[in-house]
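Structure, all two chains, one model.
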Amino acid sequence: MSNTLLRLQDVSLGYDGQAVLEHISFAIERGEFLALLGPNGAGKTTLLRGMLGLIPVLAGRITYGFDRSTSPPGYVPQRDTLDPIFPITVREVVLMGTYARLAPLRPIGRQQRQLAAACLAQVGLASLADRPFWALSGGQKQRVLIARGLAVEPNILLLDEPTAGVDPGAAAAIMDLIAQLNRDRGLTVVLVSHHLRLVRSLVRSVLWIEDGRVSKGATEVMLAPERIMDIFGPL
Amino acid sequence: MDTLVEIVSPGFLLREALIGSVLVGCICPLVGVYFVLRRMIFLGVALPQVSAAGIALAFLTYRLLLGQHQHFMASERWLALLGSLSCTLIGLLILAALAQHRETIEARIGVTYAIAAAATILCLALDPAAEAHMVNLLKGDILATTGLSLTLMVGVFGAVALLLLIFRKEFLLVSFDRDQAVIFGKHAGLWDGLLYLMIGLTISLGVMTAGPLVTFGFLVIPPLTARMLTRQMLTFSLTAAGLGAMTAFAGFYCAYRFDLPLGPAEVALASLGLAVVTTTRGLSRMLGKWQVT
């Protein structure tokens, strides 16, 4: 079995035919914990959306080391992209993750409910299953969305700014949870973040995106203090 | 009490009208749930008017091409349904396709409403032979509901309710988190298309049965009320449908008992329900805050 879960070969991504990122090539290995970092507007979310198949590939090729139709990737969006008008409970949100493997006419059964409950327990929110999703704090909502991503039973989990807009304590707890999923379950994790300090101590590799180009390497190299000083000044 | 006994008795003269009214009250909110959740409420104003314009246009086109059609015949209902459904679906698809340009959506819906209302009146003016009858049909000729039209409603509304129930997880996913649906390989466009088809059918039959005002009222008001009372998707939909059906029944009772126009009576009752729930909720929140402080 190939150890490469996802490979981009000379890929260009963008919107309305206009490339934001061009000639991107890199691979993600099974069990990797990768952070997509870079300045605001560099194209981190564009790259993540391209990897998820949410925007068309303008050039090049993305290949997956798993069958996307039977085992899609887990995805944790920014919670602000979801509309609070929906009257929906925590359990219902997590159950949505199980829809990935449910054909249209198949109802949600005991197996799906047990999986959703287990995923919710894994993020430490089992007791909140019947609470309205919108009544939760920002950090709790993010954990619920991670549980939904886990309910997909994915090979790879991709998270878009999982700590955006949550207080520092909750952000650290979320990052610890994600690191634990990578460490204990061997789950491949790719996350977009701008929390350099939080990410630096946890991720094993970094993909730096700037001026439409990417460079990938080990965290200690990519986020070496002297490099960070060059880019941001002292942290 | 006598009136209540009278209208629920099997021999009630307007039994078909009562059942039709309750069906519209029950199914419009089931579809309307997605109007509210997808923030398409303004579409709910424009589309019934587009549907009414479609009926007027179908009758006018028939007269111009084939001559005057016969009133109160089954063919008239089918003609009206064809015109109503075609125009509603075309209008819905165009407005939905343009919905991504959110900054001008209100303007587009407003223009659609104005054009549809003007087209309805113009078509009526050009078809004087049908005008008097058409005015009734466009207002919602619920009292003219026949066994045949009731059968059609039961069939179509039953199918809509069934599809909404069995595909509710797909409609929820596509409405709540479209990106997630795409990642799961669900064909979001197809599910949208099916939902729009059901919306079109419901609005067309609703307008033919009860008129644009009642159809819009039931599309929007019961779901808005139910949203304040529930916190799960399934109970939200069922509560909206239940509230709509109860309001339609109560509206029919009031209209019959006090000799009121049926449509406005139903919408007024639904609005009263919304006002009561909103006020109670507001008071309860204020009380909660006051107790905390």
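Strands of chain A lie at 4-15, 18-29, 33-37, 57-64, 74-76, 156-160, 188-192, 205-210, 213-218.
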